[in-house]
Structure formats: structure tokens, C-alpha cells
Amino acid sequence: MTSLKFHNKGSAAPLAMLFTLVSMVFTAAYLKSSFNLSVLEEYRYAEHRALYAAEAGLNEVGVVILPQLVTEDTLLYPEGKNYGKNEYGSPIGKYKNIYARTELEQNSTRKLYYVYSTGEATPITSFGDKVDPIERTVFMTMQAQGFEDFMYFTNEEKPIGPGNTGTVNFGTNDQLEGRVHTNGDMVFSSYGCPEFSGSVTITNEAVDNGGGIGSWGACDEGVFEQNIDGESVNILDTIATITFPPENSAQLVRANADYVFDADNMLFRTGKKDTLVMTEINFTPSGFWASQWWYNIPPIGGPPNEFDYIWDGLSTALNVNVSSVHFGPDNAFIPGIGYEGTFIILSALDASGENIRATLISTISAGDILRLANPDISKSVSFAVINDPIPIGEDRVMIQINSESINFVSASEEGFTDGEAITLVNTSASSGLAEDVEWNDFKYYHDHEDDGLEYCPPGGRHHFDFDYWNAGGLSGLNCDIFSCPDQIYNSDYVYMQRLFYPYSGPSVIYVKGGQVLIRGQVGGQYTVVTDDYTEYRRHDNQSIVDRVWGNIWLIDDIVYADSYANGAIVHPDDGGTQNVLGLVAGGSVIIANTRPNGARGQLYDSDIKINASIMALYGGFISHYWQNTLVAYHDWNDNLSYGYIADGRGGHRNNFRSQENNGLYTNTNDKRGVIHLWGSIVQQKRGYLLRNYPGPYNVSPGVGYDKNFHYDWNLRMNPPPYYPDQVDVNNNVILKMASYGELGDDS
To answer: FRET partner for 641 with CA separation of 20 to 30 A, picked from 184, 324, 426, 609?
Structure first.
């Protein structure tokens, strides 16, 4: 048997060393892995800190400056600002490059607000190695909230209009679809409750002052309970006050006007009486027609007695420069004595280029005392007329004078210089009221004392039916703008001939310094805006200044070209419409007393259909009830315990009847039908739409309209051009978040 022997001498040490080396390799790998994990963890932590700092910059700075943004873009903290502290008291990171900008929404004139914020944080290593900082950038987009969001908005839940009782409430006739808000106090009827089918908001400030809900009447909190998906939800909420009128954003509408129709060019002219201008905008599916007429608000004074000219110091005899005047025959001035002559010769055109030949001939008579003077009256000459004016061709007028009556006064003892501005004044002209103007009495047109100190208020009796409107009736024809348009558009009252403007894209139409009449079918996107009010010198006394408010008068239906026959707008669920109209009135939006709008108790027609976003900055959305055919409530002095409640002309309108004839009335019924409105209503106060028992118009059914109001849901995606934004008490635009994210994050 063979015996095997193993010799192990010297083998233990190498094996131990081998195991040690292997162990060290594993340990080193582990330590390396642990170190890498630590660095990675710190890197990730720094990323989170950078993101946190970026969001802090967005919230602390970006969102704050966005509503105040007036420039195209703004960059803040380009060098960065430290934010927060870690457990060692060091900053968590910093935010920087907070960049804010705006741009118009696609296919809209409403702004989108963008803000970007970059956060920066530096990873910290245990060995203090220098590591590049990590940056993360976040962004937010916000949309301006416009007033078209509201179905119904009032700054004060109080009434506005003649015969104001001071009270108004929500009752059974108020069925409001869409968002409802008031900055005032809601009052409910004691005879029935309204129906709301959208959110209702009142203000925190009103609630804090013990208001918000002024009176529950016959209602309770259940009026705000709504069944949504089988659950009862309270739709009442409180928010901060929304400033109204929104001065900055309303002015922005005017500043972005594509069409401006001046209505104040004949106001405050030297040596001229003031003349006002009415504008009409008649929409068609492919554009709009614009027209203008001149008018005066009574009381209207007698014929004009002042005429502006230029002194012609060179011509003689019957020759005279255009728009000029001089003595004849020799046009001689003798120092120390003055002027000599037997007549004056005048151009048929005054200094403004207006032909006043007929006015000169009809208003100056033998025996009148005339005066010529320069603007500061440092030089003047007066004389007596011995014969009526004599026309010399078509371009001149000669007035014979008593040469011995010439009286010249000059502080410098010098005569008029060639080209000097001159005013001809007929000092013998009557200063009374014009006898050939109907309803020429202060009481028919003004709601304040005739003391020269007060102005017509936004809630008073306003008027559109001046002589231009009645041109057909005044000429002996029983017709108006609807039945004989040519008679009206070609009358002597025309200031601007009717002109068509084809649609060329979203447009703002600005009627500057006057009122405007609106009707037609809208094809496109428009906003019509007026001034708040325009001051003018009264015709009968130029030392008295009054106001005409920038009212928008609806004289017939105003609907979109693709709306249904009943006036309903195509709902977004059915494809919607791209047509939209904003009406922004400095005063009120008024449904005029016309035949198409149901005048005379619907004798000719009834109802009015309206597709528009309506905004009355200082007035309300109101019917023209103070011009009516009620037997006992149509004149200026009826039921004066409520102030002036009527303008006296209702019985002489629709169709025209002269003041010298008795008016035609409809007993107790001037109910004009129903307002079928699809759009939104925003107003300073709630305008009266129906007046009847009880109150100043103590009859039934009374005068005005029932309501059929619907919100136009297309407005959420397609507001009218430059329609005013909502602003807070600090005049900052109220924004809502549209999107949020991180740049470069595609997840």
C-alpha cells in the first residue's frame, strides 16, 4: 500500500494576502460606490433647492409684478437674490433673471402674461470641491380676466334713471344665466325669488361692513343652492372688490381705436356758438355704415349774432379776399380820426370757410348796430346799418352804413392790420330763444336747476330725437329714418355723409365727444366706445356749460350675422360664432323709443333682439321710458314728487307730430315687448327697463320691456376687441393662471 504525504509548509501566508487583497478591492468598490451615491444625492438635493428657489422667485416677485406690467417686458434680479436658509444658516439658493412679458392671445386682442424665474443652488461636497451651480427655470402664464366674463355686474346694486325710487331688487323676473357679481348689496323681492344658474359673488368689503346681502325679502340662502351632478352646491362666494369703472382699461379701448369719428369739432370755437354731433353706426355682415348729423340741445337762442372774419387791409370798392371784410369804397383809415366809408363788403365765407351768406342776409336788418373788433377788443369800430344786406353775386354781401355813425376806438390809435382776426357782432340781435324751434324749453331737456352751476347727470332724461331725426316730419312727410332714409341721410342736418367701411379684422370704433346710434347685423369683431361725457356751451347762453353723456342708443335690433331668427347666438357646443360686439358707453346704453323697438305699446312692431357685451361706465342698461305715450305720465311736470319723469314728446313721436298739434296717447299701455339679449351686462347701477305700478308711473302694464337674458358662452373664448380688463382696488389687472411648468421638462 502506497502512502501519500502532503507537505503544507509556507502556504498560509500567501492565501491570507490574497484574501486581504480581494477584500480591499471590494471595500474600495464599496467606498467608491458610497461616495458616488453621496455626490449624486447632493446633486439631486441641489436640483431640488434650485427648483424651490425658482418657484420662490415666481411667487414672491413674478406673480406680484405681472398685474402691474405696463412695458413690453421686464427683467428683475439679473444678479440674483439669496433665498431661505439651510440648517447651517446658509442660503438654500437664489432666484434670478425674473423675466415678465406680455403678448396678445392668438386671434384676440386680450393679453397673455408670461413670467419666468431661474433658481440656482450649488452642490456641497465633503471635500469642498468646487462644483458648478445648478439652475432650474420655471414659468407661469396668466390670462387677464375681462368684464365679458359676467352675465350681470353692477358696481352699486341701486337703480338709475328718471323717476328714481332708490330701491331695486332681484325677483321672479330675474333669471340670470352665467356669472353674477355686485360690488354693492343684493336685495331680494318680497314677492318672489330670482333664479341663478351660475356663480354669484359679493365682496369681502361689503360683508365686512355688515352688507353683501341687503335684504332677503321672501328668499333665503336656498336661492343660492344649485344641484350639480346630484349634489347640492352653494354658488355664493365672496371676492375682493372689482374696481369700476376700470379707468385704465377703458382708456385703452379708446387708445386702440381703428376708426375715430369726431363729434366735438364744433365746440368751444372762438366767436361761434357750440354745435353737437350725433353719429350712427349701422352694421352689415360685411362692414358698417357711418353717418353724422349736427344738432343743438334746447334751449336754443335766436339767430347767430357773431361772425368770424379776417381783415382785408388792401382791397377796395366791392373787391374782398375770401373770408375777409373791409370798409368801402376806399378802405381808408385816417390816424386820429378812424375809418371812413359808406358800406362794408363781406365775403360769403367766414374765417372757418363756412358759407354764411344766407345767415347774414336773414339776420341783419336796417337799423341794426354792428361792431367789428379784434379778439382782445383793443380795437373796435361800430356803426349803424341803413339798408338790409345786399348780395353781390354768390360770394359777397354788401351792407350800407351811416357814415356819420362810425365810431372807432383803439388803444394804440392804429387801425386793423391786414390779415388780423376780426369778429362782426350784431349788437341789435335778439338774445331770446328761437321761435321756430319746437320744445324749446329748458324743462324738456334738463334734470337740474337752471342756475348755470349744475350739469345734466348720467341718470337723467337723455335725448337722441333732435331735429335731424325728425327731418322727414319737419318737411311735411310722415316718415323717419326707417321709412324714408334718403330724406334723413340727405337733410340739411348732415355733418358727415353716409360712408361704408368694409370689415378688415377686429376693430375698435371710437365716437369721440358725442353720442351714437347703433343697429344692424354684425359680421366680424367690433367694439364701439364713447367718451364719458362732453361739455358744451349752452346755445342760449354761452357763459353756461353743460354736459352731454356718451350714451349708446339702440334704435333697432343689433344681432350677429349668423344668429338664429329669434336672436339666439350659436352656442360653442354647436360650433359657436366668431362674431362679437362690445358696446362701451361712458354714460348709458339706452333702448331708444322707436317704431322697430315697440313704441306706442307695440303699435308698429315689438321687442328688441340684442347680441352684445354691454358696458355702461357711469350709467346703466336702460329703456327710454321717459319718452312715452302714457296719458298721465308723459309730460315734464307729471308727478314731480319723483323729479322729472318724462320729456313731453312721446305723444308727438313715432310718427312725428308737430308740437302745435295734440299728442296721441295709449292710455296706460306703452309696454314695448321683450328684450331678447344674448351677451353680458356690466353697469355702474341697474338701469330701469320696465316702469309700472307702484311708483312714479302708477299704471299697468306701464312702459318698457320684460327680460329674456342669456349669457353668450362664446365670450369666454372670443371677447370683443380690447374689451376692458377687470382691475382691483390698486388698479392692477386681475389675472387667472393658464399654465405652469418647468422649462426643459417634457414629462
So the answer is: 184
Is residue 458 within 8 A of residue 585, CB to CB? The reply is no
Work out whether strand 494-502 and strand 390-392 pair parallel, antiparallel, or are unpaired: unpaired
Cell numbers placing 448: 337740474
Distance CA 305, CA 364 (A): 9
pLDDT at 1: 43
DSSP per residue, 357-405: HHHHHHH--TT-EEEEE-TT-SEEEEEEB-S--EEETTTEEEEEB-GGG
CB atoms within 10 A of CB 337: 10
Using DSSP, state whether 56 is helix, strand or coil. Answer: helix
Predicted pLDDT of residue 302? 78
Q: How far is CA 481 from CA 380, 551, 649, in A?
A: 47, 19, 18
To 5 degrees, how large is the angle CA 311–CA 314–CA 318? 85
What DSSP character marks residue 293? E
Tell whether the model's pLDDT for residue 371 goes beyond 90: yes
Rounded to whole angstroms, the Cα distance separating 62 from 727 reads: 18
Q: CB of 188 within 8 A of CB of 245?
A: no
For residue 299, cis peptide bond before it (omega within 30 degrees of 0): yes
Length of the chain as a residue count: 747
Please list, residue by residue across 612-644, b when 16 or more beta carbons sit within 10 angstroms of its beta carbon and e when fewer do.
Answer: bbbbbbbbbbbbbbbbbbbbebbbbebbeeeeb
Residue 394 CB neighbours (<10 A): 8
Q: Residue 236 phi/psi, 5° resolution? A: -85, 135
Cis peptide upstream of residue 246 (ω within 30 degrees of 0): no
Name the more confident of 329 and 11.
Answer: 329
> Cell 377796395 maps to which residue?
316
| Residue 43 identity | Y
With beta carbons less than 8 A apart as the criterion, state whether 147 and 682 touch: yes
Place of cell 337740474: 448
- Among 370, 374, 422, 436, residue whose Cα is nearest residue 400: 370
The three cell numbers of residue 375 are 379778439
311/554 Cα distance (integer angstroms):
47
- Mean pLDDT confidence for 358-371: 92
User: What is the grid cell recorded at 95?
Assistant: 432666484
Half-sphere CA count of 290, side-chain side, radius 13 A:
19
Q: List Cα–Cα distances, 240 to 208, 414, 680, in angstroms.
A: 11, 69, 21
The sheet carrying 390-392 orders its strands as 390-392, 396-400, 343-347, 324-328, 306-311, 421-426, 369-373, 379-384, 407-410
**pLDDT (tens digit, 9 = 90+) per residue, 648-684?**
999 999 999 999 999 999 999 999 999 999 999 999 9
> Radius of gyration (Cα) for the chain, nearest Å?
38
| For the chain, counts of helices (H) and of strands (E) | 8, 46
| Alpha helices for 124-257 (secondary structure H) | 204-208, 247-255
Q: Looking at residue 675, what is its pLDDT?
A: 98
Cell of residue 72, nine digits: 413690453
The SS3 call for residue 208 is: helix
* pTM score of the predicted model: 0.81
148 — phi, psi (to 5°)? -70, -10
pLDDT higher than threshold 50 for residue 370: yes
Q: How confident is the model at residue 358 (pLDDT cuts 50, 70, 90)?
A: very high
Q: pLDDT digits over 1-56, tens only?
A: 444 444 455 556 666 666 666 566 555 555 455 545 666 777 888 888 999 999 99
